[in-house]
Write a structure and sequence with these properties.
Distance between the termini of chain A: 49 Å
Distance between the termini of chain B: 44 Å
Largest sheet of chain A: 6 strands, mixed
Order of helices and strands of chain B: HEHHHHHHHHHHHH
Largest sheet of chain B: none
CATH architecture of the largest domain in chain A: 3-Layer(aba) Sandwich
Number of helices of chain A: 9
Oligomer: heterodimer
Number of strands of chain B: 1
Strand content of chain A: 25-35%
Largest interface: A-B, 48 and 42 residues
Number of domains of chain B: 1
CATH superfamily of the largest domain in chain A: P-loop containing nucleotide triphosphate hydrolases
CATH class of the largest domain in chain A: Alpha Beta
Shape of chain A: elongated
Chain lengths: ~425, ~290
């Protein structure tokens, strides 16, 4: 597929953003910032160290190098803030690099959203021309493809109606119809493009696959390893503004996932360091799959095991609560031990207790676990974020590749 | 052979190159988009209401009528038997164009922020399109002026006699457009950093009108007066006087146009260079 000619060349690319209030941009702000600098408060453009954050600047990219050959389909992966979106913005020329060089050959189209530049007062037809031109199509080219675009959108009857009367779905369809008829040599796609209903997603993924199969170069940014693996031949893993790994998609995705797996899934403490109080200590906590594995999927059953040292003689008032947080520190749920076990006697010395999280409850993504210990319904002590682990997407049905929305993702019983 | 092929890049970012080289080529490449942006602006104005197009014409005419009433009551300033409405309108039409271009281009990047953060195109297209669509309204208003002048000619004893000055009209329009575009582009580059500039700007343009010959002709002021000296510093003064001479007949001071020409060229250069420097990081700021 690839004939070896380089179509994208990225050399030592750096991008710095300013943080904080300086962006607010009033003359007053600017004056006070200037005064602060004039008084010798240090140059914010300090040289790049190992830190991504330097003063009020943030280095989103720090020295990225790669080349892409014609016909390659490359997935950009990495966690939030790794620099994927920044790199995509630089490639699409929405913003310019702070340092480094970027060269591309051929017509580049970027799909960061569909329907860019739609004007509500204009008709569907007028918006096709406008949006097409914004995406870099020539007027003659749009005119030639107009019938096809209109047919693809499936809104022939309303094509001369101002789009302020369109539903959101119609606007998305129209926008995608234009995007689907772009014929760039290089296509840059953000996964946020994949909005809309399942049918629309299937259409857009199908279209991307056919673009990729037709020998064009595609750069695809995604969080979803499954869609990256199914579309791309090569993956570039960005981590804190640098390339961590670049190679065949299977290898890079495997290593990327492996890193997530070695998060804190187990912790033990000696009696001296163990969190707790004079009469109760937490000496060990771990989470594992019911099959013993330490890579978790949404379809797995997980077991959380606690090891406690009870230093008092008899204790029947103790309660433990398991608190599960999702990525944004949203509490997904809390599980209460005594609700299930009732009050029971704890013998002096080591005690073990475990809690099973059923399959199809956690959503995919990073989770954190906190523990709350109570005596007589009062807080005894609390250990926040004691474990961190990643839950990966299980096999999915259909063509929905987006992040599944929600703090949890239960599989509920449906009847008809 | 293959080496040569390797060196032919369509997009190069991060390499110093003469800015005008890139800019001119890019504008040409995106000329279809420029035209569609102009069209979008016009359709948006003229579609929104029935009064849209009418308002474009009524606004300067009503302003001229108001000036004629107010200043007529204060003391007659129009001269040579020209109907006051025509006298004021001949200056208000070019002035409105200037004010609208500066005001609108200064906001154009913020209006188009949604575009700028999602897709690439030569950023200068945005103020350029605004200027061109405003120029369209200006031409409509000039036509309205002509219609009104013919009306006066037919119904009153006012004789609308044009002289060779009318031939200078394209030059005057070009000068006015360059001046307005240069100022607008400079301000639009600055407003991405200083949002509050927009409020100041409207006020500044209002003030500028009072030190231009929109309301009273330059020769109505005593030669050595302070006000006259202020007016002579204003590059809009020879232009407004020129428009009035071209549209109403009566000696045009062509050599006086050197000053606005020089001013327009400097403003255009400073404006586009500033814009070019700032445009790199628009998307990060807006």
């Amino acid at each position: 597929m690839s004939n070896g000619s380089v179509v994208i060349s990225v050399e030592d690319l750096h991008k710095r953003y300013r943080l904080g209030t300086l962006d607010a941009g009033t003359i007053g702000d600017e004056l006070s910032a200037w005064l602060a600098r004039a008084r010798g408060k240090g140059d914010p453009r300090a040289p790049i160290g190992e830190e991504q954050r330097v003063g009020d600047h943030f280095w989103a990219l720090r020295g990225v190098n790669f080349q892409v050959n014609e016909g390659e389909v490359v997935g950009l992966i990495g966690r939030n803030g790794a620099g994927k979106s920044t790199l995509l913005k630089l490639l699409s020329r929405i913003t310019t690099p702070t340092a480094g060089r970027l060269r591309m050959r051929g017509h580049v189209a970027s799909l960061l959203e569909v329907g860019t530049g739609f004007h509500p007062e204009l008709t569907g037809r007028e918006n096709i021309y406008l949006n097409g031109a914004i995406m870099g199509m020539r007027r003659a080219e749009i005119a030639r493809k107009l019938d096809e675009i209109v047919a693809f959108s499936g809104i022939e009857h309303h094509i001369d109606t101002p789009i302020k009367r369109y539903s959101t779905g119609m606007k998305v369809r129209l926008g995608f119809a234009v995007a689907a008829h772009l014929e760039p040599q290089i296509l840059l796609v953000d996964e946020v493009l994949a909005v809309g209903d399942v049918a629309f997603q299937r259409k857009s993924m199908g279209r991307m696959r056919s673009v990729a199969d037709s020998g064009r170069t595609v750069i695809f940014v995604s969080h979803n390893m499954f869609s990256v693996q199914s579309l791309c031949s090569r993956a570039i893993w960005l981590d804190q503004g640098r390339i961590r790994q670049d190679g065949p998609v299977a290898e890079v995705v495997r290593d990327h996932l492996a890193e997530h797996a070695v998060r804190t899934v187990e912790r033990t403490w000696s009696m001296q360091d163990a969190p707790g109080t004079a009469d109760l200590r937490l000496v060990g906590v771990r989470v594992k799959g019911s099959g013993g594995q330490d890579v978790f999927r949404t379809t797995d059953e997980l077991v959380v095991e606690l090891e406690l040292q009870n230093l008092t003689i008899v204790d029947e008032d103790l309660n433990i609560q398991l608190i599960v947080h999702t990525e944004n520190d949203v509490v997904a749920f809390v599980s209460d031990m005594t609700e299930v076990l009732g009050t029971a006697l704890w013998h002096v010395g080591p005690n073990k207790v475990s809690c099973t999280i059923p399959p199809h409850l956690l959503n995919d993504g990073e989770h954190r676990l906190s523990l709350l210990f109570q005596r007589r319904a009062n807080r005894h002590f609390r250990e926040d974020h004691v474990l961190r682990f990643e839950v990966l997407e299980g096999p999915r049905r259909g063509a929905w590749f987006q992040k599944w929305v929600g703090a949890v993702r239960p599989k509920l019983r449906w009847q008809r | 052979m293959d080496e040569q092929h390797q060196e032919r890049w369509d997009v190069v970012v991060g390499e110093p190159r003469p800015w005008w080289h890139i800019e001119v080529r890019e504008i040409w490449r995106y000329r279809d988009l420029l035209w569609l942006l102009v069209r979008r602006d016009l359709l948006a104005i003229y579609k929104q209401s029935l009064l849209g197009p009418l308002w474009q014409v009524l606004q300067p005419v009503l302003t001229a009528v108001a000036f004629a009433v107010v200043f007529g009551w204060l003391g007659r300033m129009a001269d040579k038997g020209v109907p006051p409405v025509l006298f004021y309108l001949s200056a208000i039409v070019p002035w409105t164009f200037f004010a609208n271009v500066v005001n609108r281009t200064s906001q154009t990047l913020i209006w188009n922020a949604a575009l700028m953060t999602k897709v690439y195109f030569p950023r200068i297209l945005s103020p350029l399109a605004t200027t061109l669509s405003t120029a369209f309204s200006f031409l409509v208003q000039l036509a309205a002026f002509a219609a009104l002048a013919v009306g006066y000619h037919a119904t009153t004893d006012f004789a609308w006699h044009l002289d060779s000055g009318i031939l200078m009209l394209p030059v005057l329009i070009a000068l006015l457009t360059i001046l307005a575009f240069g100022a607008g582009v400079l301000v639009s580059a600055l407003t991405t950093r200083f949002r509050d500039l927009g409020f100041l700007l409207g006020f500044a343009i209002q003030l500028l009108m009072y030190v231009s010959p929109v309301i009273f002709p330059l020769d109505s002021l005593p030669p050595a007066s302070g006000l006259r000296r202020v007016l002579e510093v204003n590059p809009m003064t020879p232009l407004i006087e020129g428009f009035r001479a071209a549209l109403l007949g009566g000696g045009m001071d062509v050599p006086a146009l050197w000053y606005p020409l020089l001013f327009a060229c400097i403003l255009l250069a400073v404006g586009t260079i500033t814009f070019h420097r700032v445009q790199r990081s628009f998307a990060d700021v807006i």
